[in-house]
Amino acid sequence: MSDHPEAPVEPFEAHEPPYYAVVFTTVRTQDQSGYGETSARMEELVKDVPGYLGMDHAQTPGGLGITVAYFRDADALTQWRTDAEHRAAQQRGRDRWYESYTLHVAKVERSHGFRRAEAPGSVTAG
Longest Cα pair distance anywhere in the chain, in angstroms? Predict the structure, then answer.
């Protein structure tokens, strides 16, 4: 959704399956006026959907953007997909901000993660 220059570099944590992943891949237009504000609003709004789990973002230097949003169940997906404010933002995206996009919805059947353990004696900034 947004570019997140200040976001921590940390992937969405693995969850107990099943759950859903919505993969939104975009190429944006040159005109991005209003995009950042709308994107930030959508990120706040989706957090109110019961069953929303989180999201990941990536943007390539060449302009390909990928957002993956995670939802506990199909009801949560439906609530987000049919939200009136979200639907209006989708239309603005088609009218102004996206050259092209794809949307894939997948049911996650397996999920695991890895985190490197801190080295003994290392100091963590806090």
Answer: 54
